[in-house]
Design a protein that fits this description.
Radius of gyration: 22 Å
Bound molecules: pyridoxal-5'-phosphate, the ligand N[C@@H](CCOP(=O)(O)O)C(=O)O
Number of strands: 15
CATH architecture of the domain at 5-88 and 116-240 and 482-507: 3-Layer(aba) Sandwich
Number of helices: 21
CATH topology of the domain at 5-88 and 116-240 and 482-507: Rossmann fold
Strand content: 5-15%
Shape: globular
Helix content: 40-55%
Length: 509
């Protein structure tokens, strides 16, 4: 078991440690870190794992990717337990089974029971504790002026930001700067991020799009001087720890689903930056017997277009949709999948050759705005993936449909991102017409975070009330809290770097 890491764009042998990959975040060649090999899990091991708790399962999975020489098993177990002690559900990510009726096999995987009511908490509660663990270990017994500090810089379309802030707030030797597109996130998302008073947290509201924010973050990682001065850390899913921590719930949900209906399993994932479904890809490649992973996109459909055409092309403008967290033009995590496809189909299994191909593709994307892959690459992707594109109208119709017809429970309320997934799921069910398949549709956020979309769908229903039926008291309470944010009037990396350095001085950490 190598448990080391390499960059998707490297054309040389690499074996970076887990800690180095996590602390660095983005590879110096601009690539993303991936494990040197994907561990395989036997059917006997799967049987043993099928009755483990979420925390125990997370430990068994993570220790396959993290050498005990780096993090002793007892320490890793403690990190995991602390990370999920903050969740409202005892099994962390419960599966709402057969929501449209017994035997329908449409299950909803509720990933929103963490502190910020979105799936990002599952990884970012762990990442926050991981950063703290590494820093405490490297700073042990050092005087303040010699202690290593990390300046986390992240971009969000709404959920990563609050999850990152809640995962890192108050942590020693860490400061957190989150960029978000002004006016393009929900009121609750902005309140969650900007009402955190902790000295080590600062939000930057940037006039632009999420993609502008993500490009700025990647440019900052590529600025070696700034990086040397401030030890920039990543909380976006460019950081491998995000993907690793999300693998657990694919195994956990699979085991729940087949207990009642021991058939096939398809996962349907509302996708934007491709981090969530990529964790499902690793689970499948580890040996979890998943029939297919279905990418559900909103009208920002680069992923759906790629699987149908083989062309990976940045469109000119991002569509504003009812599922804003997925209003993303370039899915940063897609690069990791492309590496596996390139290695299998074009590089004859050679890692270094795969890195060369990825470098060529992403140079083309940068210079021409697109690149094209062969049908053989697409056919390889289609072995594991399918995709569906869901419009705004279909999103609203699905929220209505499930509210009106759900059985377990009645009047089940979906957030718009989850609705994109459930709409795609129902389309798959019609195509497959196969009652042996369990469909697990990932619910990536609590509906309370997206009042406009939920109310647009449900306000005509007699007896429906957002305040009564949807909004938890703790989110209601955010509205009256003071906001701490800084506006950046132009999506410009130099303006953002200046804002960060100005705030770092004020933090005095
Ligand atoms: C609520 C919600 N659903 C779905 C997604 C898509 O997940 P991913 O970006 O990992 O594809 C995101 C974030 O991107 C999100 O915040
Ligand atoms: N939808 C995300 C966008 C960033 O994705 P990530 O996978 O890099 O965290 C968000 O909610 O910010």
């Amino acid at each position: 078991m190598s448990q080391t890491y390499r960059s998707t764009r490297s054309a040389v042998k690499e074996n970076k440690s887990f800690e180095d990959a996590i602390i660095q975040g983005l590879a110096s060649d601009g690539g993303l870190f991936i494990p040197s090999e994907i561990p395989k899990v036997s059917s006997e091991t799967l049987d043993k794992w099928s009755n483990l708790s979420f925390q125990e399962l997370a430990l068994q999975i993570m220790k396959l990717y993290i050498s005990s020489d780096e993090i002793p098993e007892s320490d890793l177990s403690d990190l995991i337990k602390r990370s999920y002690s903050t969740f409202r559900a005892k099994d962390v990510t419960p599966l709402a089974e057969n929501i449209t009726g017994e035997g329908e096999n449409l299950h909803v995987l509720e990933l929103f029971h963490g502190p910020t009511y979105a799936f990002k908490d599952v990884a970012l509660q762990f990442v926050g504790n991981l950063f703290e663990y590494f820093l405490q270990r490297s700073n042990k017994d050092l005087p303040q002026e010699q202690r290593k500090k990390i300046t986390v810089v992240g971009a969000t379309s709404g959920d990563t930001g609050s999850a990152a802030i809640y995962g890192l707030r108050g942590k020693k030797d860490v400061s957190v700067f989150i960029l978000y597109p002004t006016g393009r996130i929900s009121p609750i998302q902005e309140q969650q991020m900007t009402t955190v008073p902790d000295k080590n947290v600062q939000t930057l509201s940037v006039k632009g799009t999420f993609d502008n924010c993500q490009d700025i973050v990647k440019a900052i990682f590529g600025d070696s001087d700034f990086n040397k001065r401030h030890n920039v850390g990543a909380v976006n899913s460019i950081n491998w720890a995000r993907i690793l921590a999300q693998i657990t719930y694919y195994f956990y949900a699979y085991f729940q689903a087949i207990k009642k209906n021991p058939g096939k399993v398809k996962f349907v994932v509302p996708s934007g930056n491709f981090g969530d479904i990529l964790a499902g890809y690793y689970a499948k490649k580890m040996g979890l017997p998943v029939e297919r992973l279905v990418i559900a996109t909103n009208e920002n459909d680069i992923l759906d277009r790629f699987l149908k055409s083989g062309v990976y092309e940045r469109s000119d403008d991002v569509a504003v949709t009812l599922s804003p967290a997925m209003d993303i033009l370039i899915s940063s995590n897609f690069e990791r999948l492309l590496w596996y496809l390139a290695r299998e189909v074009l590089a004859g299994g050679d890692d270094l050759k795969a890195g060369e191909i990825l470098s060529q593709w992403f140079t083309e994307l940068k210079t021409k705005g697109k690149f094209e892959v062969s049908a053989s690459v697409i056919n390889c992707a289609l072995v594991d993936f399918d995709s569906e594109r869901v419009s705004n109208a279909e999103t609203t119709a699905t929220i209505k449909d499930i509210y009106e017809h759900s059985q377990n429970p009645k009047h089940y309320i979906l957030d718009p991102h989850t609705a994109v997934g459930v709409c795609a799921t129902k389309r798959q069910m019609t195509k497959d017409n196969d009652k042996s398949i369990n469909y697990i549709s990932l619910s990536t956020a609590h509906p309370a975070k997206f009042a406009d979309a939920v109310n647009e769908a449900l306000s005509s229903f007699e007896g429906y009330s957002f305040e009564k039926d949807v909004l938890p008291d703790e989110l209601k309470a955010l509205a009256v809290l003071d906001k701490k944010l800084k506006y950046v009037e132009k999506a410009d990396v130099e303006l953002v770097k200046a804002a960060i350095e100005e705030e770092l001085v004020k933090m005095g950490l």
